[in-house]
UniProtKB/TrEMBL annotation:
InterPro entries: ERMP1-like_C, Fxna-like_M28_dom, M28_fam, Peptidase_M28. It is found in: Endoplasmic reticulum membrane. This is Peptidase M28 domain-containing protein. The lineage of its organism: Eukaryota, Viridiplantae, Streptophyta, Embryophyta, Tracheophyta. The chain crosses the membrane at residues 12-35, 372-393, 413-436, 448-469, 500-533, 545-572, 592-613, 625-643. It is a multi-pass membrane protein.
Length: 867
């Protein structure tokens, strides 16, 4: 029995489908090459001294990520890294010629402030964090001259060598500083390099600089370098205040990589950068936030190593940085804090507004300010509304124009339904597969599976409206228009699609967002395609029409494939760390998100062609073929395991020690949690050695208490459930002479009954303290942190209002602080100290996990007090 029944026109449909497959395949190959830096030739260590060299930067990175063992707060490696950076800067200072004025210093920063992170309020107190700075200027410069700041952090997060995040940033800065000196370029304005040592602890290093350093008010512009992975596009994700920084970048970047729409979604993504401190929360310095986007599989894992870096990424970053730094230094808009404040009232014009910008495959950059966008982004909607009058001039009449507009609106609705179905169909496929599968995220280590499973189904979703409503119900009178119903229907479908993109462009504009450039590009390209078809094909329906229509769209479609490819790769890589929600819904979350995103990108990439090609492709045989391909891919995907060493599963292992006093242990346990859809039972099913060691069959229980994960607050809200296993106490007492302990120094009671309790926190003999968290409940009215200001209260596990404070730095010294209570009810203080040191049983247990599992392991000492 035949699978497909041939019908008239199927041959042409399959030819067109094949041509489109080849076309999008070539576009995808080009996009892949651009995304993975195939066009960038990295220079070696023997490159000319007046060129930025990735090879020389790699040598710095080798020391920072391999020779130095762990650049984490509380570990010796962090001080070693600071020493290495300062040493390299001193060497550059010694060899600079007499036209340079070079200043190198190391500073210890202290401070306290409140912030919201991951949607939760928290207070941060820090001391003795190290920043290393270098100021390069001409001998004739003054201390108050406006300067350009280049910032990156040299600390890394728990358990990670930090080659990408952010050793690559530091190495780039060291090579950039060398390039400035060796090239003989004397900057007309000072260039400050800030190597800050405490970004992973919630941007403490940059906060210390911007609130206390003597150079802070001289900074007129900054470039923050970050990494969300191991390379790829080094994208400007945030820019401001105003449009000036992005304009400078557009004019000077050698390989422009920027996307203003990233600003619209940055707050949705879990995480933050020093840009927030420098440009938003504690200063208003104009600047750029430039981030490595890809390689997110390794971000914040033990696999973030030198070998994982994508060749060419650092070279492109360095070439861009040198050009942008020079452009900032020469720019007349570079002003220090005093000048910016004085001129604030005069900069409400073009340079104080947001801009629309995006790069075209790193070849060039499209940039225009918002005042231009107000005109450009309204224009497509105006064209859409005026066009019925223009098209019906020969038989002008109000009813005729209204009927034409009404048909266009119906075409817009059908195109909108097609895009929605392009999202819904792959989501249905994702859910259906999970109902029959033993694990989620099969595509995680094999991204091509996501395309194979979801793209054909998404195309089917796009074609469904044309397949169902093959006969477009026209409002226009065919006899009056003297055109066939098919021509009028095709016209309505095209202008409906145009109208949808025009409307989205206007919505972006009215919402004050920066992403309307993409939809405007699509609208403008559609207009060009329509003009070409009117000139060369008139109203004929043939494959020639499809070709003539497609050719003007090729630049736009190529860009959309490139843009969509970056977006999908980024989303897929981040699905391993976005957090988990309780079952049963949590099992579906990541697959549903990826299926929906594939649908969005497919609709974006194929949508402009839909008004023309759907008349050929919306056929039973074609849709059956696409469905068969999707079903086959779904079936084949079940044999793939979700993880491997290139796409590891993230697991958090906490050795929890409950203590009382400074020497007594109440309880000890191992606790595990994960941050994706495949839950802990899945983990221990496939990590058999670890499961046997823990006697998984009988000795565990589900825990839902986030209080036990207090040391990681608020990251702990990414966990939904955890397993708890008993642990022995013997080794703990051998390793530690004293545990963290909180004691009262003095208590004052005012005439109004307010109590002020002076406390002292001793962290005992903990070895490598990363952070200590305090959770305070009760009638707290003030405290000595954050200028005596309390953050918004939090509720942990549905408990009473809590005030959370994280302490970091100089763990060998005692913390002294006071709490003020406005009632007789006792204050309850819970302390969680995170020590990176693991005892041998815990280290042995960690080694039992297979290599496709990345385990972040530490010891958390919990204690509770009442005052």
């Amino acid at each position: 029995m035949a699978i497909f029944r041939s019908a008239p026109g199927d041959s042409s449909a399959f030819k067109l489908l094949l041509l489109l497959t080849i076309m999008y395949g070539l576009m995808s190959f080009l996009a892949y090459s651009v995304i993975h830096m195939k066009f960038i030739k990295p220079l070696g260590v023997d490159a000319p001294l007046d060129r930025f060299s990735e090879g020389r930067a790699i040598e710095h990175l080798r020391v920072l990520s391999k020779d130095i063992d762990g650049r984490h707060e509380g570990r010796p490696g962090l001080k070693q890294a600071a020493g290495y950076i300062k040493g390299q800067l001193e060497l550059l200072k010694d060899r600079a010629n007499s036209n340079f004025r070079i200043e190198v210093e190391e500073s210890a920063v202290n401070g306290s402030f409140n912030m919201r992170f991951l949607g939760h309020s928290i207070s941060l107190a820090y001391r003795a964090h190290t920043n290393v700075l270098m100021r390069i200027s001409s001998v004739g410069s003054s201390e108050s001259d406006a300067s350009v700041l280049v910032n990156a952090h040299f600390d890394s997060t728990l358990g990670s060598p930090g080659a990408g995040d952010c050793g690559s940033c530091v190495a780039s800065m060291l090579e950039l500083a060398r390039l400035i000196i060796d090239s003989g370029w004397i900057p007309p304005r000072p260039i400050i390099f800030l190597f800050n040592g405490a970004e992973e602890l919630f941007m403490l290093g940059s906060h210390g600089f911007v609130t206390t350093h003597k150079w802070r008010d001289t900074v007129g512009a900054f470039i923050n370098i970050e990494a969300s992975g191991s390379g790829g596009p080094d994208v400007v994700c945030q820019s401001g205040p105003g449009s000036w920084p992005s304009l400078v970048y557009a004019q000077s970047a050698v390989y422009p990589m920027a996307q203003s729409s990233a600003e619209d979604v940055f707050g949705i993504i879990p995480g933050d950068t020093d840009y927030r401190i420098l440009a938003q929360d504690y200063s208003n310095i104009p600047g750029l936030d430039i981030i490595f986007l890809l390689g997110g599989y390794y971000y914040h894992t033990s696999y973030d190593t030198l070998e994982r870096l994508l060749p060419g990424s650092i070279q492109a970053r360095g070439d861009n940085l040198f050009g942008v730094v020079k452009a900032f230094a020469f720019n007349s808009m570079l002003r220090n804090a005093t000048e910016r404040q004085y001129l604030a009232s005069t900069t409400e014009g073009p340079l104080s507004e947001r801009a629309i910008f995006f790069d075209y495959l790193t070849w060039f950059m499209v940039y225009y300010p918002r005042r231009v966008a107000v005109v450009l982004h309204i224009l497509p909607v105006v064209i859409f509304l005026v066009l019925p009058i223009i098209l019906r001039l020969a038989d002008f009449g109000v009813s005729s124009c209204c009927a034409t507009l009404f048909d266009f609106l119906k075409g817009m609705l059908l195109h909108f339904i097609a895009i929605i179905l392009a999202i819904i169909v792959p989501v249905i496929f994702a859910v259906s597969r999970l109902l029959l599968s033993s694990h989620a995220m099969n595509w995680f280590a094999h991204p091509y599976l996501a395309f194979m499973m979801f793209v054909p189904g998404s195309v089917v979703g796009l074609l469904i409206p044309r397949y169902i409503w093959r006969h477009f119900h026209l409002s226009q009178d065919i006899s009056i228009q003297k055109m066939s119903s098919e021509v009028l229907a095709n016209e309505a479908r095209f202008w409906g699609a145009f109208g949808l993109y025009a409307l989205l462009t206007l919505v972006y504009l009215l919402a004050g967002l920066s992403g309307g450039g993409v939809t405007f590009f699509v609208s403008a390209s559609l207009l060009v395609a329509w003009i070409c078809t009117r000139l060369f094909c008139s109203h004929e329906r043939s494959l020639r029409l499809a070709v003539v229509y497609t050719l003007p769209l090729l630049p736009c479609l190529t860009y959309l494939v490139h843009f969509g490819g970056i977006l999908l790769q980024f989303v897929i890589e981040k699905m391993g760390m976005v957090g988990s929600i309780p079952p049963p819904l949590g099992y579906y979350m990541q697959d549903v998100i990826v299926g929906a995103m594939v649908g969005v990108v497919t609709g974006l990439c194929l949508g402009p062609l839909l008004p023309v090609v759907s008349s050929w492709l919306a056929r039973t045989a074609v849709m059956q073929l696409l469905l068969h391909v999707s079903v086959l891919a779904l079936a084949v995907s079940s044999i793939f395991f979700p993880y491997n060493v290139d796409a590891p599963k993230r697991v958090v292992m906490q050795h929890t020690v409950l203590t009382t006093g400074s020497t007594q242990i109440l309880d000890s346990s191992y606790e595990f949690s994960v941050v994706d859809s495949n839950s802990l039972p899945f983990l221990f099913k496939h990590a058999r050695e670890a499961a046997e060691q823990l006697q998984i069959g009988s000795g565990y229980s589900f825990e839902t208490s986030r209080q036990r994960w207090l040391a990681l607050f608020p990251v702990s809200f990414l966990f939904s459930r955890s397993f708890k296993f008993p642990a022995r106490n013997d080794d703990i007492l051998k390793q530690y002479k004293a545990f963290p302990h909180l004691s009262t120094v003095e208590q004052e009671i005012s005439a109004t009954g307010t109590r002020k309790i002076h406390l002292e926190l001793n962290l005992g003999s903990l070895k490598e303290v990363w952070v200590t968290a305090l959770n305070i409940t009760g009638p707290l009215s003030s405290w000595s942190f954050a200028d005596n200001k309390l953050p918004a209260p939090e509720s942990i596990d549905g408990g009473p209002p809590s005030y959370i404070c994280r302490l970091s730095g100089a763990s060998h010294e005692k913390w002294t602080f006071w709490l003020e209570a406005n009632g007789s009810e006792p204050l309850r203080v819970e302390v969680a100290a995170l020590d990176q040191h693991l005892m041998e049983p815990a280290r042995h247990l960690k080694r039992l996990f297979p290599d496709w599992v990345d385990v972040v392991a530490y010891t958390s000492f919990l204690s509770s007090y009442s005052f």
